[in-house]
Design a protein that fits this description.
Radius of gyration: 23 Å
Oligomer: single chain
Strand order of the largest sheet: 3-2-4-19-7
Helix content: 25-40%
Low-confidence stretches: 1-48
Number of helices: 16
Number of strands: 20
Mean pLDDT: 86
Distance between the termini: 56 Å
Largest sheet: 5 strands, mixed
Strand content: 15-25%
């Protein structure tokens, strides 16, 4: 096994004022705004044909040049195979790697009469800012005029990952479904069978008890499991128990219903009754409960953990976790990017650290888990031919799929193994299962509601500050007040 070096880059953007200009004044654009987008996208009289389709390559930030090069190589590969002969690219440089800086660079290039049609969007924070800056064209009309395309060919979370305020904002490339990794030796020593797709919450609890090492009432030498609000927030367990956030018909909160309470009580019991998962320490950020996966097994805040959740998969060989908090007019964005490289700087393609194996998350009453967007191709509002741009996006997406781990398009376990040959048959089956049942919230005021759930449910529950029923009632009241504004 090649030596692994870990390169981690973190950045925080705090921005009531910084991103205010990107947020606009409300959820819906005016008719004149929509008309402006239609004009820039070619209006209703979009010409057809094989006009050149230009992809913007944004070479800013630590990883921007590498990503731009990989997209350029994919474009060249398409041409070499006789496909994508009308696809070309142009380099976009920005003094800032922040989404609003990229927006200004794209608009500046367009004002210089540079024809630009497509852009790679790395994560949902970029998608949000690009859209609010009128940089993107929803692709719904293009989908309706393309009989060869259907989102039925994609994992549900693949489609959900590109939905913003009820509109499809591009073509998803990859997803990162929530799964978990476990320490193979720890399970063997404790006499715990390797997890499979049949595990439920009872199996998880019983295995975690056997795997937890240390006395009661204090820190442990090893925990059996971990709950990470960044990867498996309590919303995931509420979904697994048949609950949800909103009643779509009345647009009122469902978060305090009995199924939600039961799910949160189960997670709380893991920390405070059974003591098999780490608690959230007072003053600590929720990121302290996220696992790292060095050789030898998962680690959470410096303590070994036998089994820990992870967002499975990489995009362009890197793992990027972006958290957007939005509440009371204040926006905070944290970017955590980790790239695995060998001694020569080449990306390592294996997905799990040596000594660890992967499995799908245990299920509750239903199969459900959270997923993350792994990147998408969007049509820019600077395009002169949105239909041609869409066709180019489809060609480019297929060329880029092998550069990530879990395509948003449905694949089989054997196809996943062709991308990552380190996965065993059971691991590949587990990851495809996780992708099949993964979900991404598409609720109105999504980021504000998810922030409420983190602040009112995840944090106080995992700290033991509030009982689950009271925590969920607080969240329900805050969500209903938000939706009435």
């Amino acid at each position: 096994m090649k030596r692994r070096n870990f390169i981690k880059m973190g950045a925080a953007i705090v921005g009531g004022a910084a991103l205010a200009g990107c947020q606009g004044g409300g959820e819906d654009r005016s008719a004149s705004d929509a008309e402006g987008l239609a004009v820039r996208a070619g209006g209703t009289a979009r010409p057809r044909g094989d006009r050149p389709v230009t992809v913007a390559l944004v070479a800013t930030g630590a990883e921007g040049p590498r990503i731009a090069l990989q997209i350029q190589l994919a474009l060249q590969s398409l041409k070499d195979s006789g496909e994508g002969t009308n696809l070309t690219h142009t380099l976009i440089t920005s003094a800032s790697n922040r989404p609003d800086g990229i927006v200004e660079a794209i608009k500046s290039a367009a004002s210089d009469d540079r024809k630009i049609d497509l852009i790679y969007v790395a994560h949902d924070e970029q998608l949000e800012v690009f859209d609010r800056s009128d940089l993107l064209v929803p692709v719904d009309e293009m989908l309706r005029s393309d009989p060869d395309f259907s989102f039925d060919d994609y994992f549900p979370s693949g489609e959900q990952s590109v939905i913003l305020r009820g509109r499809h904002m591009g073509l998803p490339l990859w997803i990162r479904p929530a799964a978990f990794a476990y320490d193979v030796q720890a399970l063997s020593d404790a006499g715990v069978d390797r997890p499979d797709g049949t595990w439920d919450w009872t199996d998880l609890l019983e295995a975690s008890k056997k795997l937890t090492v240390g006395g009661t009432g204090g820190p442990k030498n090893r925990y059996g499991f971990a709950v990470s609000p960044l990867i498996t927030p309590l919303l995931s367990y509420i979904w697994q128990n048949g609950g949800d956030v909103l009643d779509e018909g009345s647009m009122t909160s469902r978060i305090a219903e009995p199924r939600a309470v039961e799910a949160v009580e189960f997670v709380r019991s893991l920390a405070f009754d059974h003591e098999v998962i780490p608690r959230l320490n007072a003053g600590a950020n929720v990121s302290s409960l996220s696992a790292r996966f060095p050789r030898g097994g998962p680690i959470v805040d410096g303590v070994p953990v036998a089994m820990a959740p992870l967002s499975f998969g990489r995009s362009f060989g890197m793992e990027m976790t972006v958290e957007r908090s939005e509440r009371g007019g204040r926006v905070e964005v944290t970017v955590d990017m980790e790239v695995l490289v060998d001694a020569d700087g080449n990306s390592i393609t294996t997905s799990l650290a040596q000594g660890s194996a992967g499995a799908s998350l245990p299920h509750g009453k239903v199969d459900a888990n959270l997923a993350r967007l792994g990147g998408l191709i969007s049509v820019l509002s600077t395009t002169a031919d949105a239909d041609a741009a869409w066709r180019g996006a489809r060609q480019l997406a297929r060329a880029l799929e092998p550069v990530g781990t879990v395509p948003a398009r449905r694949i089989t376990p054997s196809e996943l193994q062709a991308i990552d040959g380190s996965l065993s048959d059971s691991e590949a089956e587990a990851i495809v299962r996780a992708a099949q049942f993964s979900r991404i919230p598409t609720i109105p005021r999504k980021y504000e509601i998810l922030t409420i759930l983190r602040d009112e449910v995840d944090v106080p529950t995992l700290r033991g500050e509030v009982e689950p029923e009271a925590a969920l009632k607080n969240a329900a009241d805050a969500i209903d007040e938000l939706l009435q504004q």
